[in-house]
Automatic annotation (TrEMBL):
Keywords: Kinase, Transferase. This is ROK family protein. Residues 1-32 are annotated as: Disordered. It holds the Pfam family Glucokinase. It comes from the Bacteria. The keyword Glycoprotein does not apply.
Length: 365
């Protein structure tokens, strides 16, 4: 996908990399002390399969999509970004990048792809004055502060507290989770590696499937089942357990087949929903998510027509001996497809709002 013309119309001429027009912000602390990254800001949602680039012209402005790039098309993130930024009439001054993988200060590694991120190196290569790496679910957690009622669909109403901890989680190429804790107008984002928690069977149907799942996995984790590959694994296990012929299919194929009423695919999706509700309820207890639990990612919105709201509510809140607490938790699905970008734009506008004005994480050219 080429750079959007809407993103490049009417801009000032581009500053060259490393030019006098892009001074080292370490000698210009006013940019961050003003409470915002220097705009325009490149924001990127970088997953194991695709990288989505957008531009935010000014603090509070809506992000403008630039391109969607398969991560396998370029050897490094710098090469991928430059393939798009080189087409713009004005290069961004800063970058806030959401990476689907664990962070270590100013560096990160994609969990399901071979891209490594070094913030200062990226700034030097692309002429950014400043930047920040965040976990992709940190960005989604930040989006909870700016999403509107029409951006979510409620599965379980619960009794949420306005200032309660909010938790976002969800399946995609992998499985992620992060929390947003808000106090007095400031927030703290808490990333996790919850996708790598082990998970076992809890009902008779799962007890039949687990040996079939375990045969092809060194360890059954949340991510190994609640992800695109996980939906395929569940479909394969259901087909094997019921004696149905299992075609070689993708997660998208399983979804389409289930919507068309295919028995094996439908049973796989039902198992997926029940497991997702169970894990969401368990993590809600772990974090005491009295502000609500939000499911994100590209898989679940497509499965909403097959959601058994009553069954989901029962599994999500069925947490003896903590049923009274679990009954207070709300469960929603984020249905807008740009929540990550909106979270990144909110971070770029006011990093201190999310506790991200951290010198140990910020980087400069």
């Amino acid at each position: 996908m080429a750079a959007s013309s809407a993103a490049s119309t009417g801009r000032r001429p581009a500053r060259s990399k490393g030019s006098a027009g892009s001074p080292n912000t370490a000698s210009r602390p006013d940019a961050m002390h003003a409470g915002s990254f220097a705009h325009p800001v490149l924001v990127a949602d970088i997953g194991g399969t695709n990288c989505r680039l957008s531009l935010v012209e000014a603090a509070g402005a809506k992000h403008v999509p630039l391109a969607r790039i398969p991560t396998g098309n370029h050897p490094t993130p710098e090469a991928a970004f430059d393939s798009v930024l080189s087409t713009l009439s004005e290069r961004p001054r800063s970058a806030v990048l959401a990476v689907a993988g664990p962070l270590d200060g100013r560096s990160a590694q994609l969990t399901n792809a071979n891209w490594h991120f070094d913030g200062p190196r990226i700034a030097g290569a692309l002429g950014f004055e400043q930047g920040l790496l965040v976990n992709d679910f940190e960005a989604l957690a930040a989006s909870l502060a700016v999403l509107e009622a029409g951006d979510v669909q409620t599965l379980v109403a619960g009794k949420p507290e306005p200032d309660g901890l909010r938790l976002v989680l969800g399946p995609g190429t992998g499985f992620g989770a992060a929390a947003l804790i808000s106090r007095g107008g400031r927030g703290v984002l808490v990333p996790t590696e919850a996708g790598h928690i082990g998970v076992g069977p809890e009902d008779p149907t799962e007890e039949k499937l687990w040996p079939l799942l375990a045969a092809s996995l060194p360890r059954i984790t949340v991510e190994s089942l609640l992800s695109g590959d996980g939906l395929v694994r569940l479909h394969r296990a259901v087909a094997a357990e019921t004696g149905m012929l299992e075609a070689k299919v993708s997660a998208a194929d399983v979804t389409t087949l289930a919507l068309d009423g295919d028995p094996a695919a439908l049973k796989a999706v039902i198992s997926f929903w029940r497991l997702l509700a169970r894990v969401a309820g368990d993590l809600a207890l772990a974090f005491k998510a009295t502000g609500g639990v939000y499911i994100a990612g590209g898989i679940v919105p497509r499965l909403l027509p097959l959601a058994d709201h009553g069954g989901i509510r029962t599994v999500f809140a069925g947490k003896p001996p903590m049923e009274d607490l679990a009954a207070r938790f709300a469960l929603h699905v984020i249905t807008t497809n740009d929540a990550t970008e909106r979270g990144l734009a909110a971070i770029a506008a006011a990093p201190a709002r999310f506790g991200l004005d951290d010198p140990a994480r910020l980087w400069f050219a």
